[in-house]
Amino acid sequence: MAASPSRDAIIAALRTVRDPELHRDIVSLGMVKDVAVEDGRVHVQVELTTPACPLRETIERDVRAALVAIEGVRDVAVEFSANVRATAPRGGQRPVEGVRNIIAVASNKGGVGKSTVAANLAVALAKAGARVGLLDADITGPNIPTMFGFPAGVLAREPGGLRPLEKYGVKVISIGFLVPKGTPVVWRGPMIGSAVRQLLHDVPWGDLDYLVIDLPPGTSDASMSMAQEAPITGAIIVSTPQTVSLEDAMKAVTMFEKLGVPVFGIVENMSYFIAPDTGKRYDIFGHGGAREAAEELGLDFLAEIPLEIPVREGGDRGEPIVVAQPDSASARAFDALARAVAARISVLQRMAS
Ligand SMILES: Nc1ncnc2c1ncn2[C@@H]1O[C@H](COP(=O)(O)OP(=O)(O)OP(=O)(O)O)[C@@H](O)[C@H]1O
Ligand SMILES: [Mg+2]
User: Fold this and answer.
1) Which residues line the pocket of ligand 1, CB cutoff 6 A?
2) Distance of CA 141 to the CA centre of its chain
3) What is the pLDDT of residues 278-298, one digit of tens each?
4) Per the domain annotation, does 90 fall within a domain?
5) How far is CA 198 from CA 124, 135, 162, 163, in A?
6) What pLDDT does residue 219 have?
7) CATH of the domain at 41
């Protein structure tokens, strides 16, 4: 039987494994945290920059391939851990205590599915193992409580006031926790700005890898003060496939660019319809519009989410589709979106360091 290989031989082999996105080997990237060899049994611990890493399987496969090729290796165990880095604040920005990255979900138009995308993105990131928060910045029309199944005004009578409530692994906060259903919230611009500021800074978030922010439609006071105040890592623009909606998406992109907030890309929601009885796909609004628009603008096309009745039902019932029907086409699309966004953030961090 061949002698057990040395630790150095294992590390040398790991130097041939490259991170497919960063194009450098995993040893010099500092991703290899621990290597142990005993009797030909190798244990490697690899630290990823996000638990939602889309390349986890590829890296594991490459590590295995590199190690089993070494003489004397009988068994390979690859263990993954994750350490999400924090976005550094730019001039004038106040970091949110404990929060490493902020993802803003926006669109210039109402009703395109921002809240649906924000809710499912947050839950999908949490399912992947990340510590996640969700801030409902739609101060005058908060929808997030309903989408998570929290009764309106759930915290109205509590002496402690507003605090995040946890569900589906996500810490959620919304003005709707204080206001009974059907009560119109009529606030002027400056008040909205200060409400958003309080939701960000005066709330015990704890340690979060990602805080997802559901913005109200348009270039409203809430979005503006949010983007100027908090170190937003990047924004996701939600659009439906119709041309008008895309034109509106462009406006949101322009707004974030003016504010110096990176735009991660466009999500096309209600991309196509899946008939519940036949499973057949219908391109109701045409197909490929958002992808083309993203290309034209040099933006990433992050995901296409189908129009499926259970998405709306889940939203109304307080059970996001990624929980209610994790194998549905839309839930899979949301999972892919979460991985794409997490990967974008990892690459941004790496470029900044
Ligand atoms: N992919 C989808 N399939 C089916 N229904 C959807 C989908 N996306 C969103 N909806 C439904 O469309 C409606 C509007 O979605 P949502 O509230 O998320 O939009 P919004 O952009 O946040 O709206 P507003 O601008 O009012 O904040 C909701 O009833 C939601 O359940
Ligand atoms: Mg909304």
Assistant:
1) 110-116, 138, 141, 143, 217, 269-270, 305, 307-308, 311-312, 315, 330
2) 22
3) 989 998 887 777 788 888 878
4) no
5) 26, 11, 10, 11
6) 67
7) 3.30.300.130
